[in-house]
Amino acid sequence: MELQDRIQPLRQQLQACLEEGASFSVGYREQTPLAKTVRTCRQLLKQEVSLWTFVHHEGVEPTNNAAERSLRPAVIARKLSFGSRSQQGSQFVARLLTVTSSLKVQQRPILDFLTDACRAHRYHLAPPSLLPPAES
C-alpha cells in the first residue's frame, strides 16, 4: 500500500500533463511533431490504467527492459541484413522472430516447434500453440 500512496502524486501529475497535451487541436491527417505528440498523449490516456499495473500487482516490472533485451538480436540482425525488401518478407521475419523469442522465454525447442508448424500446414492440421503448456 505504501507504493500506491507514494505513486499517487506522480500519477496525478502525469495524467494532468497528458490531458494538457491531448487538448491541443490538430487536423485529422496532420503529420507535424505537435500532431504526433497530441496523438501519443491521447493514446496514453486511453491506456492510463495499464501504465500503473506494476503498482497494484506484485511481480509486474515497471519497465520494459526484458522486452527491449529480447528485441535486441532482431534489431541487430535487421541492420546487418539491410532488412526485407517486401511487405511479405517483413511480416515473415516479424512472425518468425516472435515465435523464436516466445519459445526461448518458455525454454521450448525452436526446431521442434517449426517442424510441427510445417507439418500442420502441409497436412491441414491445427498449428502448434505458442502459449506455454499448462502446468499440471
From TrEMBL:
Residue ranges of every copy of the Transposase IS66 central domain listed in the record: 5-91
Superkingdom classification of source: Bacteria
Pfam families per UniProt: DDE_Tnp_IS66
Name of the molecule in the record: Transposase
